[in-house]
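Progress report, Aim 2. The chain analyzed during this reporting quarter is listed below.
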Amino acid sequence: MQNPPNTNRPYLGFGLGLRTQHYHSVLDTKPNVDWFEVLSENYMVPGGKPLHFLDRIRADYPVVMHGVSLSIGSTTPFDQNYLRDLRQLADRIQPEWISDHLCWTGVHGQNMHDLLPLPYTEETAKHVAERVNIVQDYLGRRILLENVSSYASYVDSTMSEWEFISLICEKADCLLLLDVNNIYVSSYNHEFDAKAFINGVPANRVQQIHLAGHHNHGDYIIDTHDAPVIDPVWDLYEYATSRFGKVSTMIERDDNIPEIADLVQELQRARDIAARYPQKILNGIKHE
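Predicted structure tokens for the chain:
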């Protein structure tokens, strides 16, 4: 697949997921974080404390929006109220970009509150791309799709996950949130080469990277976001950085959440790795 011209937005640096227990610390101490990612659904409300704090933090830091309920792979029509609220939040806080997961989360209006994998087929890719275009037209902007961790596969799949993702990006002209931890988890669970995944996605579509911790049960890994990033995931991140150059990178932590100073210290490792790769040439465009 030939890469189209680079479509990435400006490089943001190194961020964290904004969590409620850190609101006051962020406002009071102004930690060494370049940007924050906010969980869209937590702020898609008409008012209240979450929006109050988000508005104040947004005045000091760039933010991106990250959702878990778009269900881009579902066959159920989109929830128009959800799309309306998503757009209203974007209009309010003016995020650098909006992302969600390449998955489905339920059918017939029933949200299973899980990120369920899709069969990797041309028919599914066409279906997802059509739905991505609907969302992008409604929001008036490209969106990012994140690769999910998975624990089951489909016998109907006819291609690899990275080929599937690449096909959707091409058909929908969307961007990619590359979750390096999810690549590691899925490669362990399904016994594929994690580096092949990184080599297989279109470099010019990778706009953001996620890093996170997980729990290894021996025969399988569960993506939990409740622990520090492990060394093999850091190694995979370095491999990704060697291919893509500097990409806006953040650490997710959703449980056993430490003080923000501890997360800033962990984030420094990403800064140190990226510093070894000061620039990247993609289709003639230099990324500092």
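Residues 1-6, 281-288 have pLDDT under 50 and may be disordered. The two ends are 26 Å apart (CA to CA). These observations will guide the mutagenesis work planned for the next reporting period.
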